[in-house]
Each structure stands twice: as structure tokens, then as C-alpha cells.
């Protein structure tokens, strides 16, 4: 099946099996390795990307569903490889990364929330982040770093 | 958008998604592997027919146990594993065959086409089964016909006399659950053989050096023809401290097929690879005087270890050796057992071997404190080990700031004003602990250095650091960079760390037993001091000054005759020093001190230093549902010296987080023998095996206490494991404070808590009548 969609503002046209999980297309076909696969549908959240600004688990989305859609991954957080987005900078400064496997997914959640509501309260942020697992940090550093940017 | 700064030198790679984990790597012509796993807990393999798999399009090879007949195991005294099962399978999920195919889907399909004929054997499924001599043996042909891998018995002082001297004696049984690590990255290995005959294995491992040795052994290949590289690792917590079947099979299949091959475990398979916490039954008897002095202890433990040894021999020792720490105890004895059962193998998980005895002893102390009417915080303080002493079992104690930790958490939490006085269903509890900073003795007997670091100063002012350590997210790369950078007054980001590549980095034994900061850190200090000394020599001569100071990327030599500052950039100073000394390359290594022991066979447990922790937990219990909410945890940790406070605090928070999971959620458990489908894993997915999300994670208040260890690198000690030890018992003690029930079995799930509350209500009602 021929699909056309935008990934980080760039148009991609691919011939691909329609039920291939989006995560596999991103990682194997487009070499976007930032979204990670920690499970297959267990809700770890490491593969979180945005589809039309809505955060989704990319392991649970068949690629045919993103036909004509706009997909955003951690690689698309900034246009300039030499610079960081504010959310990224906050996480880096706060040492809010342990192994870093969950980090791209967390960032995409943070971005989605920020787009929806520029100044979310701590409870809103916690609620949304609770769909993503982190096994290293105890979450607090991530929440605090993100709140700092959003306030 | 702004300038790049990071608390960690590799933080930028991680937050931009550019950090390369093993699964992010690919090779032209790369094959993929998949395992056929055992459906039986205990069975004899009668025959295996691989023809249907080999006939499938896209299948390149099928590997069986007989292809890799050499046994291995991470601990040399207990090498009971094979890459793939030979003759027998010993747990549901054990690897029986490994298929190499053009893609993973084909490999999985082909693995299912293999036909195996089994003769099902009676399974050994519990500690009781394992201790029962009438049950079948898991491992036949051992010297001792038994399902007990190791029994350790030691006695110090005179326990009976100690009990005689006690005013109060308490006996109780405790049951600690199994749990597993759940690193978000599953195990992945990629192997390739190049034309020169070099086999390279990229793997998500915590132990590149031991893996290197085991590959040499199992593949019967010269170690110089094997290279192990560890890319970024999506954490381990102990779960990647063994050599795994996917690593050995990837290597063997790369050799056999001549093609690169990747073998990744899916999430369910990680639950079979396991190597997690041992389910442990314990019995503890302790005596205490009215004044609160612990006089004696008697401890027995039985650990259910699964099908293979892994680090299980060590587990059996740690249970006993670390029992009294952080307290003084002169008269005591223990007997511990580590058993084989037909479940996935247990191994080292964060706080290895010390979590279970703390669960028992720290609850016991609270009960004794209640009996003698003393504050549980004070009871701990007055029994604390003292600096520069030796414990009754011969552990050399150096720096200790336990009482500072206790005072800090008591004060920060308002413990004394709250304990016993909180509103209904709210409670507070305390616990304390100590943990090792690396093992004095390597896993294989050797007098060689256990850590080494090589550094090279470049004319640009950058320093390259080569180290065999394995950063698995805990920040050991940053630790090395920080030590070197601090020594010569530059920024950590101006150091480049090349780590965990057995071709290019000097040996380090790996990331386990909380050894890296103490061992590799000391090696880095020594290498950096040599560089500094060479540069000092050059600059003092050149400037004709007595001493120089390294600061802010510059070297300062005071002022000249005209009163002008003498200063050069670090890069300039490197050039001058290189002119005089030649290339500025230096090595440093660390071999732990030879600390003699009064006791024979005291080789497992001693460490060059110990970290200390105190914690207070505050909980809320819903008496209607039994649901426990951990609200706050205060954690004060004696880390010697916080080389990077942000990273150390992160370790404390991670430890408490993991402890909370073990306290209220996690139970690595199996359906019993009566289950129609056999003893299956109850929760082999993250959906079913619950780990804390943000909802279950309490507010964590980290307090760093610095005791400046004399032998630690710049005074530092470990911080990555010790802070997990007190969390579960502190929560148990808080639940008792909240609802008056003593939970001797973890995790504290709603049904368990509710049952205890209802039992207490019935008992109270009966007594009232």
C-alpha cells in the first residue's frame, strides 16, 4: 500500500504493508531511532509520538492510520540540530534522564500538553505523564523540569 | 531555544533521541534471531526435529543446545548453564532452539515449526519442594544430590549467651516476594564477524568483561578474537549482569552463517530471562535489653532461586553477612539456603541479598522498640556501628554517618511529633541500612586490578578517558569525566569517555555490587593525578614558580615580578607539557586493599567501604479497600561525597521509587502446580506486572550526607543501591503506625492489607468481649 504522510514536516511516501506498526516504519524505514520500543502494547510509553498533535503509542498504531497525517517525533522537536527545545533543555539541566530510554516519549507527552494548554497545572501534567513509565528517575525530576518550562 | 547545557555529559544524546542503543544499530545483510522456548517447567528432551524450520524460506540456521556444549555461569563455582537447553528443560520459557532468519517474523514462525518431543517430569515449584529430598533433582550429577545450591552457616560470638542477657526476645517469620527489574530496554545483542576473524558483539550488558570471558569459554574461541561493545543501555538494575542466551546464540549464529545477526528479547521473554529478586522466607529471633541494646540474633532464610545458579551463591552469603549492618551485633548466627526450583532463574537485583534481611530486621526493630517503649529512631541510633571499627564478623568499617542520616530524616519529616500521633489511617515509619561499595574479591579469583582507566590529553585541551566500565544510565561516564575534569580544572563536557569496548578500554569488572564509583573512580583519580603532576612539573619549570593552580580551564601561576598574573589556557599548558614529556597518556588502576579477616571463608561480602541510609515513609491506608498510598519518603544517604549532587539525588529517587514498587505492587509470581496449564508466569507483561507510574510514586525528599571516606575517590561512596534497602520496611512500619497491623509478607496489596485489618478488628472485638 502506498502511503503519504508528513514526519517532522517532511513529506514521506512509502510503499508499506498497511498494518505495519508505526514504530517499525519510523525506526526501520525512516531511521528515526528516537522513539523506542520497550514492549508491544503493554503501555510503557517509550514509543510515544504525536499524530496530528495527539500523543499515541506508535507500537499500537497501524501505519495506514497515519495516511495524510502529520507525525512528530523527538527528532522534530527542533529544526536545528545544534539547539535544544526548551523542554529538552530543562530535562538536560535537571539531570532528569537516567538511562534515557523513556526520555523521548516523555518529551512528546510534554510537548502535546504544552500545545494543548500552555500553562498546565502540576496535576494535569502528572495525569498525562502517568501513561509513560520511567524506571530510573522516580519521575520527580522529570515533572519538576517540565513544570519549570511551562510556568 | 538556548545554549546546550546538561547535568550529565551524555544527557544531550538522550534527550535528543540520538543516543544509540543496541536495537538502534543495523548492518547490511543482517539476520534476526528468535528462540523456541520450553512450554514445560521440568521435562526431558527426547527429540528435536529442526527440518520443518530449516525448510522454510528465509531461514538460515537453527542452533540447538548440542551446538554449544560448554557449560557456563557468571560465578565460576556454579557454572550450571548452557546457551540452549541440553537434555532437559528446567523452567517454562527456557531457550531450546534459536533460529536465524532474514527477518524476525520469519525467525519466530520458523521457531514454532520446530518439533520437540518432551517427557514431562515432576516440577519443583516452591522452597518446600526444593527442601524435600523426595522431589526430583533439577541438576543431576552434582557432587551433592540436592536442590539446595548453597547453604551458608556462620556464627559469631555466643548467640545463646546473648539471648540470656536480653530483657525482651522476639521471634517472627517474614516472607519477601520475588520481583524483577523491568528495564525499559529489553535485552538486545548484535553479533558480526569481520574478514579478519574478529567476532564483535554489541550488547545491552552490565558486564562486558565477564561476558567477554564467557564468550571465549562457550564459543571455544581465543579472547583476542572476540570484542564486546556496550552501546547505550536502557538500564539494568542488575537485570543485565549475567551472560544471556541471546548474546551467546547471536555470536554463535554470526560465526555459523557469516552474516551479522541481531537477537532482541520481546517484553514477555525478559520475564523469563529474569535474574531478579529471590522470593525468600525468613525466620528471625532477636534479643534486646530494656536500654535498647541488641544482644543477640538468630536468622534463617530460604531463597527460591529458580532453575540456575546465576549469582545465587553470593545471595546466600549476603543474606547473612549483611544482616546486622548498620548495627553493632556481637552475638549472632545465621543459616541461609539458596534453592533451585523450576522457575526462571533469580539473580542480582538492586540491593542484592540485602533487601530481604532488612525487610525482616527493620520491622523486628520496630516491634522491639514498642516492647521497651523507646523511639524507633533512637533505638537505631544507639545501636549504630561506629567509624573505624570492625564488626563481629570481620567487616572493616571506615566512614559512617548513619546517625547524621537518622537525625536528618527524623527532623525533615517531623517523625517524633508524628509517630503514634497521626490522624486515623495515616502513619509514619523509619528504617535504616548499609550497603557495600564493591566487592573486595572479584568473581573469579585474581590479584589483578579490578578497575583501570586510561587518559590522554589532547592539544585541543580535550581529555579522552578510556574505561571498561559500563554506564547503564546510572551516570558512571559522567562520574569519570567529572573526576578527571575536577582534577585539572576543566569542564566535564571537555572530557570524552570511551567506555565498555573490550578492544580499546582497560578491564573493569562491570556495573554490579555498587562498585563503579569507588573502584573506577579511584582509578580515574590516579590517572588524572599523574597527568596533573606532569603538567605541574612543566609549568613550574617554565614559569619558575613553586606551584600552579588548575581552574576554569586555565592554569594559574600567581603573579610575575611586574605584578601581572601568570596564566595559560589548559590547551596551551597541555602543549607545553607534551613538548617536555611526549604524548600525555596516563593510566590509573584500583585494586582493593588486602583486608585480612579473622574468619575463614569470609570472602563474600567484605567491601572497602560501606554507604549508610536512613529513611522515613509516610503512608495513608484506606481501611475500606486496604489500598496503601505512600505519600512522602524522606531519604538521607551517606554517599561519602556527592561528586555530582544532581546525579546522586537521582539515584536516591530511583532507589526509593523501586522500593515503593516492591512494597505495594510487584510480585514476580507463578500459577501453582494445580494450574491446568502448568506453572506459568502470572504476569509476564508490563500490563500485568505492575510497576509504579507517577500515580503510585510518592514525593521523595533526598538528603545527601557526606562522611568523606578516606579511601573513596575524593571521599565518595556508592549511592545506586543502598538507598533502596530501607524503603520497604519503612513503609511496613508506617502501615503499622497507621492501622496497627504488622505485614510480614510483601507486597502490601489491598487484599493483603484488608485481610490484616479485618483480622485485627475481629481480634480486638474478641478481646473487648
Structure description:
The complex is a heterodimer of chains A (151) and B (769). With 151 residues, chain A is α+β, with helices and mostly antiparallel strands. Chain A has 2 domains: 2-76, Ubiquitin-like (UB roll); 86-150, DNA polymerase, domain 1 (Orthogonal Bundle). Chain A contains 5 helices and 5 strands; from the N terminus they run ββαβββαααα. Chain A has helices at residues 22-29, 86-93, 103-116, 122-129, 140-150; strands at residues 2-7, 10-15, 48-51, 54-57, 70-72. Chain A has a 5-stranded mixed β-sheet, with helices on one face. The model of chain A has no long low-confidence stretch (mean pLDDT 94). Chain B folds into 3 domains: 11-121 and 181-273, Alpha-Beta Complex (Aldehyde Oxidoreductase, domain 3); 279-389 and 397-441 and 599-768, Aldehyde Oxidoreductase, domain 4 (2-Layer Sandwich), CATH 3.30.365; 451-590, Aldehyde oxidase/xanthine dehydrogenase, molybdopterin binding domain (Aldehyde Oxidoreductase, domain 4), CATH 3.30.365. In chain B, helix 10 packs parallel to helix 18, helix 14 (476-488) packs parallel to helix 15 (516-543) and helix 15 crosses helix 16 (570-581). In chain B, 59% of the residues are buried. With 769 residues, chain B is α+β, with helices and mostly antiparallel strands. Chain B starts with 10 loop residues before the first helix and ends with a helix. Chains A and B meet through helix 2, helix 3 and helix 5 of A and helix 1 and helix 17 of B.
Number of domains of chain A: 2
- Classification by helices and strands of chain B: alpha+beta
Radius of gyration of chain A: 15 Å
Q: Cα distance, first to last residue of chain A?
A: 45 Å
Side by side, the strands of the main sheet of chain A go 2-1-5-3-4
Uncertain ranges of chain B: none
How would a crystallographer describe the biggest sheet of chain A? 5 strands, mixed
Topology order of chain A in helix (H) and strand (E) letters: EEHEEEHHHH
pLDDT under 50 segments of chain A (min length 5)?
A: none
Average pLDDT figure of chain A: 94
